[in-house]
Amino acid sequence: MVVSVAVSSLGHTDLFFIDQGTKVNGQYYRDVLLHQQLMPAICDLSGDFFTFQKDNAPAYMACETTQLLTCETPDFIAPALWPANSPDLNPVDYQTWGKHRSQMHNVDQLKSRLIEEWEHFHQVFIDEAIRQWRPRFRACIRAHRGHTEHRL
């Protein structure tokens, strides 16, 4: 199961689930996830100013996707400026998803639990993740783009 979300100091979007079996390629990412879901939700949350940061999953790396985000987002961190495989720099990965862990037995149970937890998610966790971003980025540079958890 793939889940996407946007977080900021202004709040967070709903969770966007990609149905199991859906081929997530560059076109799906642009047409469905970005245009229909994430970008409208981000603009509703933050208006015209936000920084867009994504991980470097293959579907997100298409040239057309980078061009779209460069043109349609006010402040986009381009792939060339973002280290590959960088969960240490993604606030959703290093702060948000790890807060509520419990064993799930199937995808439907996991989806229900994520929705339930997300509805009650405290902004304080997102704010802390955002505060940690610059120190984490500096640690990543010191680690020559390597993992940094042990350095923080």
CATH class: Alpha Beta
SS-based class: mainly alpha
Question: What's the story with the biggest beta sheet?
Answer: 2 strands, antiparallel
Radius of gyration: 16 Å
- Which strand order does the major sheet show? 1-4
Give the oligomeric state: single chain
Note the total helix count.
Answer: 5
Bin the helical content.
Answer: 40-55%
Instruction: Specify the CATH architecture.
Output: 2-Layer Sandwich
How many beta strands in the DSSP annotation?
6
According to CATH, the homologous superfamily is Ribonuclease H-like superfamily/Ribonuclease H
Q: Give average pLDDT, whole number.
A: 79
Please explain how this structure is put together.
This protein is globular. With 152 residues, the chain is mainly α. The longest helix is centred in the first third of the chain and has 21 residues, at 26-46. The chain has a single domain (2-151), classed as 2-Layer Sandwich (Nucleotidyltransferase, domain 5). The chain has a two-stranded antiparallel sheet. The model has no long low-confidence stretch (mean pLDDT 79). The protein is built from five helices and six strands.
Topology (SSEs and partners):
Blueprint: E1 2-4, E2 7-8, E3 11-12, E4 16-18, H1 26-46, E5 51-52, H2 63-72, E6 75-76, H3 91-96, H4 107-119, H5 123-142
Parallel strand pairs: 5-6
Antiparallel strand pairs: 1-4, 2-3
Could you provide a short overview of the structure?
With 152 residues, the protein is mostly helical. Helix content is 46%, strand content 9%. The chain is built from 5 helices and 6 strands, in the order E-E-E-E-H-E-H-E-H-H-H.
